Amino acid sequence: MQAHEIDYQIFGEEMQYVEIELDPQEIVVAEAGSFMMMDNNIQMETIFGDGSGQQSGLFGKLLSAGKRVLTGESLFMTAFINQNNTKSKVSFASPYPGKIIAIDLTQFGGKFICQKDSFLCAAKGVSIGIEFSKKLGRGLFGGEGFIMQKIEGDGMAFVHSGGTLAKKELGVGDVLKVDTGCIVGFTKDVDYDIEFIGGIKNSLFGGEGLFYATLRGPGTVYVQSLPFSRLADKIIASAPRAGGSSNEEGSVLGGLGRLLD
Questions:
Q1: What is the pLDDT of residues 231-251, one digit of tens each?
Q2: pTM > 0.70: yes or no
Q3: Could you please report the per-residue DSSP string of the chain?
């Protein structure tokens, strides 16, 4: 596998975007909805699957697209092709506050495993598939970590995280315990499993769920402080109820006003 060699630069702090510079005829593929801006000479093309098997026939295309359906993603991705004789740029933005991580697959043995919603874009030739759990515990109780994506190849890929990003280097036998939703991704040698929190009080009243993920080294792990699912739950919980009003939110009369309503 030989992916296109792309240059890039990441801009911003909390709401980042990545600007990718393409040589003539170079291609980058991205998730639908991540596009931000591009030069006039770049052409957009919708492709079936991840674009890595476009010449492998109908079966290869269907297999590539089917993997994406299993992870809850769209059947299609968008390819951006530089049709000019000079270099051109295209930019992709993170969908919510956080950090964009540049993954050079050649430095990670050609494979990186990430949460199914974290992939942003990659050089043409990089394969985006699924990483099935081989352990029953992960399958039944893994939550957001049950089905993960695997990014394979020898090119650049970009994933995004929510909130503040932590990078952990695990040695042989080192164990890191993480909320399943807080995992962004990890290298292929990291062993991933689900562990019961334990204790009646923790299980019933802890508010942290019944299980957390255990990541065993060696390898590199990326952890996010604010998974999008947690942010969405907070927004839904704070949304005004039917017939209610949030005009008094933050004032002394806020709770009293809602009680009178």
A1: 777 788 887 766 555 544 544
A2: yes
A3: ------EEEEE-SSS-EEEEEE-TT-EEEE-TT-EEEE-TTEEEEEEETTSTTTTSHHHHHHHHHHHHHHTT--SEEEEEEE-SSS-EEEEEE-SSSS-EEEEEGGGGTTEEEEETT-EEEEETT-EEEEE---SHHHHHH-GGGSSEEEEESSSEEEEE-SSSEEEEEE-TT-EEEE-GGGEEEEETT-EEEEEE--SHHHHHHSSS-SEEEEEESSEEEEEESS-HHHHHHHHHHHSPPTT---TTTTSTTHHHHHHH-
